[in-house]
Amino acid sequence: MSSTLDFEITLTERPATADERARILADPGFGRHFTDHMITIRYSADRGWHDARLEPYGPIPMDPASQVFHYAQELFEGLKAYRQPDGSVVTFRPFMNAARMNRTARRMAMPEMPEQLFVDAVELLVRTDHAWVPDAEGHSLYLRPFMFATTRGLGVNSPADEFLFMVIASPSGLYYPRGIKPVSVWLSQDYTRAAPGGTGEAKFGGNYAASFAGQAEAVAAGCDQVVWLDAVEHRWVEEVGSMNLMFVYGSGARARMLTPALTGTLLAGVTRDSMLTLAPDLGIAAEEGKISIEEWQSGCASGEITEVFGCGTAAIISPVGHVKGNDREWTIGDGEPGEISMRLREELIGIQYGTRPDPYGWVHKIV
Ligand code: COI
Asked: Which GO terms of type biological process are on file (predicted)?
């Protein structure tokens, strides 16, 4: 393994038994169970990245004055490991996650990490805990790299200079237990997720904490997810929940797809990027642009917009069936998953699970 650091390896003395693991893998849910090991790598301004370890999964001692607890200086990534038909295990575009983590790190005044070290850390954990990669259809090992400021002190005038990077892994079933049944979405006009110049394009926990009140409002309105609109005019569609949004116009050979452009307030999703690559190769023109809630509603009323779906690593593709806001409500198509959404989903899943060829070199074999 080529790496910029050598990992010190300490295996757990109490790994889950095969029976315990089988019980968990039979119904893993999402993000509820964790594998036997984790990765830790420390950073300090004077030593750079050092002290790389694979160690037993468990609690970490933290000073209560660590800056992350007070000023939320942290970030995270999310990717998955997939079981292949021959039993081997792959990850999907891990260098994209590494590059995005470094973009987030720059925005959050945190240290960047060599991309190869990020990928080596993720792969070492997967290789060690590969027995935890599920083989049930649609299941995977969700990998959660994250980093936070451990500098002790409450001052904010000098940036933190000590950080801990970690990777944990969670065997996961479907993100939405209801599968691909379309979700209903709530147009949030009270809350915004991100403003120009803010942290919207960073994969930073604060963006998610700030979204929970809007998500609670969506649930109170009887919807599954919240749609985020732009912070200035409250009419340009940005994201849905923690996913990017795709709009399909027309159908068959004339179908085309539009997704909100990356303006700095949206997350640059790996699945979003994969959709933009896959769609044209399936004969579906794909573009990045702008769409307002008025255009969304009138496009559905005229039949011009035929399908809408959210996409992200966790849920892959989640069709949107119904939209609701303070003063409006409408259904997309017949409220059922659309043909284009399902074709794109099948294609992506096929590449990830090794049942279709990968002409893009996206899958990264680990074991
Ligand atoms: C993803 O879909 O990749 C996400 O970021 C969802 C995660 C916050 C659970």
From this structure: isoleucine biosynthetic process; L-leucine biosynthetic process; L-valine biosynthetic process
Helix (H) or strand (E) holding 15: none
Q: Which residues contact 134 (CB under 8 A, 6 or more apart)?
A: 25, 28, 83, 140, 141, 171, 172, 173
Which of 267, 275, 313 for a ligand 1 pocket mutation test, highest count of atoms within 8 Å of Cβ?
313
User: Do 183-352 and 8-172 have the same topology in CATH?
Assistant: no
| Four-point Cα dihedral 120, 101, 163, 111, nearest 10 | 100
Q: Which atom of ligand 1 is nearest to the CA of 30?
A: 9
**210 CA to middle of ligand 1, Å?**
15
| CB within 8 Å of 100: residues ≥ 6 apart | 77, 203, 268, 270
Confirm or reject CATH 3.30.470.10 for domain 8-172, answering yes or no: yes
Pair type for strands 89-92 and 48-56: unpaired
Strand, helix or coil for residue 361: coil
Assign 31 a pLDDT band (cuts: 50, 70, 90): very high
What element of type H or E holds 157? none
Strand runs labelled E in the chain:
8-9, 37-44, 48-56, 74-76, 79-83, 89-92, 140-149, 162-172, 183-187, 225-229, 237-240, 243-249, 256-260, 285-289, 305-312, 316-324, 329-331, 363-365
Q: Is 242 in the pocket of ligand 1 (CB under 6 A)?
A: yes
Roughly how many angstroms between the first and final C-alpha of the chain, as a whole number? 12
CATH number of 183-352: 3.20.10.10
Rounded CA gap, 92 and 312, in Å?
Answer: 13
Do the beta carbons of residue 122 and residue 175 sit within 8 Å? Answer: no
305, 332 contact by CB (below 8 A): yes
Residue boundaries of the structural domains of the chain: 8-172, 183-352
Q: What is the pLDDT of residues 147-164, one digit of tens each?
A: 999 999 999 988 899 999
Q: Do 97 and 118 contact (CB within 8 A), yes or no?
A: yes
pLDDT of residue 3: 53
